[in-house]
Amino acid sequence: MNLPTISLNFALSADGKISSVAKRPSGWTSREDHARLLELRKNADALMVGRGTLEADRMTMKSPQDPLRCVVSRSGNFDPGHPLFHTPGGPIHLLATEGQGIEIAGATLHRGSLADFLEELSRLGVRHLHCEGGGSLAFELLALDAVEEVHLTWAGHTLFGGREAPTISGVPGGFLPGSRKFELTEFDPRPEIGECFLSYRRVRE
Ligand SMILES: NC(=O)c1ccc[n+]([C@@H]2O[C@H](COP(=O)([O-])OP(=O)(O)OC[C@H]3O[C@@H](n4cnc5c(N)ncnc54)[C@H](OP(=O)(O)O)[C@@H]3O)[C@@H](O)[C@H]2O)c1
């Protein structure tokens, strides 16, 4: 498969969870976390989120270089009234993997598998695809073994918490086909805000 280089960015609470209540906005863990999120977007040709995150966080997915804005769904039940579709920015590409999907003016709708969509983005010239969640989508990317970089904000000052709460590899119960190894490339503790910024690169043996 000819895929873009894919990176993930997540904020984790003390127990490794990424969200306390499904469908509730997770927000930023700190001003610095938000600044890092914006910085990480700058290197991307395309940004990507799952429809759950788009809805929960009311994302408009903007960055100065106007990267492609990609949203992944099984049902394709995109809300035409969502702020994403009314905010200027990069071209919008929507994926419906199972349903027919809703056509929305100004957006390109794709149908097919997530793997095919990633290949199509590569054909469109996307070299670096940056995914900002959520856990369900990240699980699928990790299952495809398509993730090369992981960026984390470790926010140990908070517990999102809960047995059912997702991690960066989705909700409890789903196992990846195998472990994925990464090496640490950045370790940036910020004791003044009680957080640590981490980056990892995939190690392929
Ligand atoms: N802490 C953080 O850094 C962080 C980051 C991102 C999100 N979050 C939080 O996570 C929560 C959202 O979680 P979530 O699990 O709903 O997020 P999600 O992964 O963004 O969305 C799940 C939805 O995405 C679609 N999807 C996922 N995988 C797919 C695949 N392989 N193929 C096709 N469609 C796929 C499906 O959409 P359809 O239902 O349309 O079929 C699915 O219902 C929110 O509370 C959000 O704030 C936290």
From TrEMBL:
<dbReference type="InterPro" id="IPR002734">
    <property type="entry name" value="RibDG_C"/>
</dbReference>
<feature type="domain" description="Bacterial bifunctional deaminase-reductase C-terminal">
    <location>
        <begin position="4"/>
        <end position="170"/>
    </location>
</feature>
<dbReference type="InterPro" id="IPR024072">
    <property type="entry name" value="DHFR-like_dom_sf"/>
</dbReference>
<keyword id="KW-0560">Oxidoreductase</keyword>
<dbReference type="InterPro" id="IPR050765">
    <property type="entry name" value="Riboflavin_Biosynth_HTPR"/>
</dbReference>
<dbReference type="Pfam" id="PF01872">
    <property type="entry name" value="RibD_C"/>
</dbReference>
<protein>
    <submittedName>
        <fullName>RibD family protein</fullName>
    </submittedName>
</protein>
<keyword id="KW-0521">NADP</keyword>
<comment type="pathway">
    <text>Cofactor biosynthesis; riboflavin biosynthesis.</text>
</comment>
